């Protein structure tokens, strides 16, 4: 595959670029800043040098020409460097731009680091969007393997994906001593995969992996700090019905979810496919929102009586309710959750995404092929699309 042009645009000044391993942060930065001074903190040499004396960064930066760029790759490895960066930003004699990447916020949080007190913008790198891949995007492959650049570009994508969780266990969790029992944590990674795109019940997950609830809470925090997962809260603005309180859980990429989810005779293709499709839409909405300036809140809606809408997007550019169906056909009963939401929030635009090929409107709800929706979604674009030029695969 040729090099993929990413939508991400760097700020003019200093910035953090956070994202899970394999999302292409380093690849993008080397293309965007080929002349930058590059300090890779995964390198044992740089790790030893700057861990012992973080102030050595001052000496290095004095050699960088005015207007140059310094990249600190995986800055969470040495949090003490951030205080030096802060001082250098304030130093009028050193006029360089700092770009700091990270795949974990765990150490930064534990160290009480303030992320440069707002002097650097926080940006995020996500897996590929379908519209970045263009004609290379294949919905079926994306549902099986996800859209991590590390996996998509690999010669053996399936093997690379299988090793991804092991890489994190070895290089992040184990190396930093984040958990006492790696076996418990490995069981947790599998157990919580059954909560993908579903309400997160920590007590049930704790029973499944045979640890206490408090431990599971800590494990979920670790996943989020490593940027491997996120929770979707309930949309409660002007609520007119009784709503559930639990958030929904997602691994950040469809392929990562599929690689961690154990399968057997009792697992139906529809169950796995439904969770995978909802995850694929979720990761696109997150990427779209961040690349558009994080102007919207992302949530879901579920009443205590069981009526649920998968995604609610709310912000200054619009208000959308989105339901995702892993089906080639749409029946009237599939529209009921959106109709219930529409009764409470007539201001919302309601969309139903499905695996079929035809776009149409029914009962005030736009029914769109999910393939076309994902392919057309770009930063600052609306969450509706004219689909006549697309044919779903």
Q: What is the subunit organization of this protein?
A: single chain
Percent helix: 25-40%
Q: Order of strands in the sheet with the most strands?
A: 9-10-11-12-14-13
**Count the strands?**
14
How many structural domains are formed by the residues? Answer: 2
What class, by secondary structure content?
alpha/beta
What is the N-to-C order of secondary-structure elements (H for helix, E for strand)?
EHEHHEHEHEHHHHHEHHEEHHEEEHEEEH
Low-confidence stretches: 387-393
Shape: globular
Query: Which radius of gyration do the C-alpha atoms yield?
Result: 22 Å
The overall pLDDT average reads: 90
Largest sheet descriptor? 6 strands, mixed
Cα separation of the termini: 20 Å
Strand content: 15-25%
Helical region count?
16
How are the secondary structure elements laid out?
Layout: E1 15-18, H1 25-32, E2 37-40, H2 44-52, H3 56-62, E3 69-73, H4 81-90, E4 97-102, H5 106-110, E5 121-124, H6 130-133, H7 139-145, H8 149-152, H9 157-174, H10 182-191, E6 198-199, H11 202-209, H12 213-225, E7 229-232, E8 248-251, H13 254-260, H14 269-291, E9 297-302, E10 308-315, E11 318-324, H15 336-344, E12 349-354, E13 360-362, E14 365-369, H16 370-376
Parallel strand pairs: 1-4, 1-5, 2-3, 3-4, 11-12, 12-14
Antiparallel strand pairs: 6-8, 7-8, 9-10, 10-11, 13-14
Helix pairs in contact: 7-13, 9-13, 10-11, 11-12, 13-14
